[in-house]
Amino acid sequence: MKANPKVKADQKVEAPAGGGSKKLIIIIVAVVLLLAAAGGGAAWFFMHGKADAHEEEDKPVKKKSAKKAGPSEYIPVEPFTVNLQPGEAGADQYLQLAFTLEVGSLEEADNIKKNMAKVRNRVLLLLSSKKAADLSTPEGKVELSKEIVAQLSEPFEPRGDKQDVIDVLFTSFIIQ
Predict the structure, then answer these.
(1) What is the Cα–Cα distance from 130 to 145, expressed in whole angstroms?
(2) What CA–CA distance (Å, rounded) separates 72 from 166?
């Protein structure tokens, strides 16, 4: 800051009148706005916080911690070869199927891998209940994908959490 040449060193420079009152008004306005925001936040908390607590009481208790957010994980599943249910012709038909599971998190991928025997059993039972005519159309394949997701989303343990299986991606689909 430069010294004012018109003012001598021993003179006092006074602030213009009204400067202090402007600061006081600004401080008062800031305090009022801060209190209004705090009051609005408190009102929202009391209105929504109680509603959220009632919703939480209605939900079943989860044993696991919240699922980790992140990108989907992909788990290749070994191919299946199963006998299909006899069709109208009564001839034996087979399905050879390979797919990859898309799950919601790394934690889910680990859970699926640990329970791969149960995964394969559920899929094998589902596939062996199908007829070739049910699976030969694109709509039949989409329906099968949805059924596999539904089967694998069910808990592996009684009263356990559901798995976060997002999709089934077919990598091989052969009917003979």
Answers:
(1) 13
(2) 8
Question: What residue spans define the domains of the chain?
Answer: 19-59, 73-175
pLDDT in tens, 1-18: 555 555 555 555 555 555
Q: Which amino acid is at 74?
A: Y
CA distances 123 to 47, 65, 113, Å, are 47, 28, 14
pLDDT tens for each residue of 113-137: 999 999 999 999 999 999 999 899 9
CATH code for the part of the protein at 73-175: 3.30.479
Q: How far is CA 50 from the centre of its chain?
A: 24
What angle, 0 to 180 degrees and rounded to 10, lies between the N-to-C axes of helices 138-153 and 116-127? 140
Strands (E), 67-145: 73-83, 94-103
Q: SS in 3 state form for 33-83?
A: HHHHHHHHHHHHHHHHHHHHHHHHHHCCCCCCCCCCCCCCEEEEEEEEEEE
- The contacts of residue 102 (CB under 8 Å, 6+ apart) are 72, 73, 74, 165, 166, 167, 168, 169
